[in-house]
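A quick aside before the break. I want you to see a complete sequence-to-structure record at least once, exactly as it would be stored in a machine-readable document. Don't worry about memorizing anything.
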Amino acid sequence: MSGVGSPDFFYREAQRLGYVARSAFKLIQIQKQYKLITPGASVLDLGCAPGAWLQVACQNLGPLERGGSVVGIDIKDVKVPSSHCDSRVRTVCADVMSLLKERARALSPQGRGFSVILSDMCPSVSGIATKDAALSCKLGMRALSLAVGKISSVDSDDFEIEQFLSGIETDADETGVLKHGGNLVIKFLENEDVPAFGKFCKLRFKKVSWLRPKATRSCSREIYLICQSMK
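That is the input. The structure line, written in tokens, reads:
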């Protein structure tokens, strides 16, 4: 089966255009709709393997003279793709779940934080819906915590948020690594707890949206939380 709506279309297009994975088209659509990455931006890509989002992020930095940077972090050792990437892209092998905010911040230009944080992290799907959903929320919570800093009950009355946080927040650094006015993208697997994240983010960002990109496989429960302009 072929066509724009078929799973095979994006795979073929990725090969034709030099992207290392079809997931590139998810970020391409996000960028086209929300324009999160501007020329000269500093971008942190959490769970960057195999590197497709590194490619798209770099393409949106503008010409080399505009500056900017893209830092990819993954538990795997990821090689920077040769196409669509330049000297402004680098990768770090680290476990995001145990990554200290201080270390993450040090990876940004002048150690001042990032203007965009992208999280395409997803658990290895077991097929057990409740287990996969819980792991997805845990990864999403970690990305959110790295971005905005320590989250307390003062910030949210959502029990789910506090419960997820209690299981991962061991970093004494209370300051996030996302700059004021910065943008954040987090992937989740749809489940009953996911809306709580959007509700919380509405307190921290000027605009919050949900998107299921066209390149998402029909069998997938993936959905993206798009947060614009951190207050």
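Two observations worth writing down. DSSP finds seven helices and seven strands in the chain. Residues 24-230 form a domain with the Rossmann fold fold (CATH 3.40.50.150). We'll return to this after the break.
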